[in-house]
């Protein structure tokens, strides 16, 4: 063991590598001597040479005295003695400073974490105080309620669209607050036929069990009647599972099943109340103001508000440009214990002045919808409606169901509803979105409304799925502009078909329109692609705009061919030209209102390929 003595002090001494020769450009320095006494238990004489960049040191050990002498040459007076233990290990000085710097960094990190923890606790306390103040103010009469931190989405309306959306978002883990004006079972005369395409969307959303236990009826196609003739049009379901088909049911039963399923989710809150207005701050929708069942005025806040309060919405004016048309009204009846000519089929009678629909809504009931053109209908109270139905409508109904129809009229349970049409023309607004009939309507002749609504929910679900934090309203609004573009091909195809078919199926004094109506019936009666193609469009199984246009003008050309055969004449050629012009006048204005570019070239719209504000697994805006 080596001991260096100096005034009873012990300090570590590091031995570094040194040069054995003096610097070639520097004269040698004087060499003072440094004596070190070394205690050793060994009797063997040992000697060491210690090198330093500035000096050469010789170390000798005397076995007789068990001491060693350390001699050194240096310019300073290094003759004093030190007491310290020296281990014969070379230590790089950079290691020491590295460890020292790491120690300082560790201490700084600890201090910083402690400071941040204190700041976070202070912010949390401030937020809790703010929430307590808001709760206290709500009890004092200020209509403030739920803050954005407790609800992700507020949904106005719990009809087909609202209930399905609530369940879909709730299943994805979002906190949903649904406000519905009336939570009792609805009693409507429309929204009772779900096309196979809509049923596929129902399966995709996990809501297919909502058509069970409500006595829903399978619908396999349509039967078309005109002037004593009929043709059956079946859905092209060969490529699908045997369970896939249309469904018809009581609208209220279907909605209640979806409401129950949504309400069973722990993060979905279903509340009865009437929404009176949207809460807007600096151009951003922050939530809604509503009145509870007991008359209390409250506000619900959320980063996203979805308005789907139906065709009579009073909130859509600030979110879109509503251009509502009412081409006709439906007169609704329920025929009891009536067997339709074609089981499990909807029946369409091309009557004068407009179509009549029959379809089952339960195992013992058949819904009848009589279309009356215009916004005014005969009065029910004074008996004019009953007289109109018996004298004008009943003679045009197939004989098999005439008696059941008259019995339903005599029973007196006659209801009416306006048929509204409104193309989607939204105003992208931060914090708000429109869906369902509040956003887009078409004539209910084809029963495509629920298919469009469920398809829209699938699109919205897929857009929101990568996002978890919805609080950046501006970025979210810009991102959700793609919703309006992505929904267009399917929605516009169904909307255009509904409007075009209603005009073609309605009677008209114009000879060209009469020829178009007859050509449509004959074209669908041909079978093959001439029937499966249009029915695939109607059912939502193949909602492609180009296919719609091709089949529509194929009907027109088929009508012209009927006119020119066997011998063309100038009059027939003129009617044929007017028929083509009439067909163009029917479909092009509808497509223009829907948006030609969005229908046929959606990929050219800037918002079509808009990506999520945040990529990857971190799901924040």
Automatic annotation (TrEMBL):
It comes from the Eukaryota. It is a multi-pass membrane protein. Its cofactor is FAD. Keywords: FAD, Flavoprotein, Membrane, Oxidoreductase, Transmembrane, Transmembrane helix. Its EC number is 1.14.14.17. Residues 64-77 have a biased composition (Low complexity). Gene3D superfamilies: FAD/NAD(P)-binding domain (3.50.50.60). The chain crosses the membrane at residues 94-112, 548-567. One of its GO terms (molecular function) is squalene monooxygenase activity. Belongs to the squalene monooxygenase family. This is squalene monooxygenase. It comes from Parasponia andersonii.
């Amino acid at each position: 063991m080596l001991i260096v003595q100096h005034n009873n002090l012990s300090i570590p001494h590091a031995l570094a590598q040194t040069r054995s020769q003096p610097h070639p450009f520097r004269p040698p320095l004087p060499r003072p001597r440094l004596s070190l006494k070394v205690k050793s238990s060994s009797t063997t004489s040992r000697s060491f040479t210690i090198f330093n960049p500035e000096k050469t040191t010789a170390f000798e050990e005397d076995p007789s005295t068990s001491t060693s002498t350390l001699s050194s040459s240096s310019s300073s007076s290094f003759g004093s003695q030190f007491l310290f233990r020296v281990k014969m290990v070379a230590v790089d000085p950079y290691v020491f400073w590295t460890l020292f710097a790491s120690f300082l960094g560790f201490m700084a990190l600890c201090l910083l974490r402690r400071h941040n923890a204190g700041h976070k606790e202070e912010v949390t306390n401030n937020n809790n105080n703010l929430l307590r103040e808001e709760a206290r103010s709500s009890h004092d009469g200020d209509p403030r309620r739920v803050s954005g931190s407790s609800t992700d989405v507020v949904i106005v309306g719990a009809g087909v669209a609202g209930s399905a959306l609530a369940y879909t978002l709730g299943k994805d883990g979002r906190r949903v607050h649904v406000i519905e004006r009336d939570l009792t079972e609805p009693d409507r005369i429309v929204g009772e036929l779900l096309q196979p395409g809509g049923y596929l969307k129902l399966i995709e959303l996990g809501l297919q069990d909502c058509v069970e236990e409500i006595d829903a009826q399978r619908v396999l196609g349509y039967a078309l009647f005109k002037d004593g003739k009929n043709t059956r049009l079946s859905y092209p379901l060969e490529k699908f599972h045997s369970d896939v088909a249309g469904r018809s049911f009581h609208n209220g039963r279907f909605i209640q099943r979806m409401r129950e399923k949504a309400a069973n989710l722990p993060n979905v809150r279903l509340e009865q109340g009437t929404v009176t207005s949207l809460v807007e701050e600096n151009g951003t929708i922050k939530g809604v103001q509503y009145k509870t069942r007991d008359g209390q005025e409250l506000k619900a806040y959320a980063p996203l508000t979805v308005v789907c309060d139906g065709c009579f919405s009073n909130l859509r004016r600030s979110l879109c440009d509503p251009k509502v048309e009412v081409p006709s009204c439906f007169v609704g009846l329920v025929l009891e214990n009536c067997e339709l000519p074609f089981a499990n089929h909807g029946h369409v009678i091309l009557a004068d002045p407009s179509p009549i629909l029959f379809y089952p809504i339960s195992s013992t009931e058949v819904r009848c919808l009589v279309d009356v053109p215009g916004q005014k209908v005969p009065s029910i109270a004074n008996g004019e409606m009953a007289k109109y139905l018996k004298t004008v409508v009943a003679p045009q109904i197939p004989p098999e169901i005439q008696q059941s129809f008259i019995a339903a009229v005599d029973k007196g349970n006659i209801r009416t509803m306006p048929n509204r049409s409104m193309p989607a023309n939204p105003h992208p607004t931060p914090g708000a979105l429109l869906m369902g009939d509040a956003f887009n309507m078409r004539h209910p002749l084809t029963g495509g409304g629920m298919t469009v609504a469920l398809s829209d929910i699938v699109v919205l679900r897929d857009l929101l799925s990568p996002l978890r934090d919805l609080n950046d309203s501006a970025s979210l609004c810009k991102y959700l502009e793609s919703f309006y573009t992505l929904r267009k091909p399917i929605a516009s195809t169904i909307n255009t078909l509904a409007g075009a078919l209603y005009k073609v199926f309605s009677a008209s004094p114009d000879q060209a329109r009469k020829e178009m109506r007859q050509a449509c019936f004959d074209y669908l009666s041909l079978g093959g692609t001439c029937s499966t193609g249009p029915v695939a469009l109607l059912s939502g199984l193949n909602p492609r705009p180009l296919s719609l246009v091709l089949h529509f003008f194929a009907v027109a050309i088929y009508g012209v061919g009927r006119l020119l055969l066997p011998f063309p004449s100038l009059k027939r050629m003129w009617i044929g030209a007017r028929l083509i012009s009439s067909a163009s006048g029917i479909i092009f204005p509808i497509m223009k209102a829907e948006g030609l570019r969005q229908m046929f070239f959606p990929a050219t719209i800037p918002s079509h390929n808009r990506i999520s504000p945040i990529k990857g697994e971190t799901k924040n805006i």
